[in-house]
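User: Could you check the structure of this?
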Amino acid sequence: MKIRLDGTRPEISYSMFRLREIFTVTSVSRAYPNRHRPRQYHIYVSIVPRETDHSR
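Assistant: Sure, the predicted structure tokens are below.
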């Protein structure tokens, strides 16, 4: 799945931290500045569900 994250750099960093707790992140784009919102950026993140251990 590909997700677009918009926000300030701290907001994007926090969102990435939270995403990595739940999903496996397979790729992250560079930060692109938002044209109409100063000091805000967007990135694209590709994720997949984490594999679970079903043997328990």
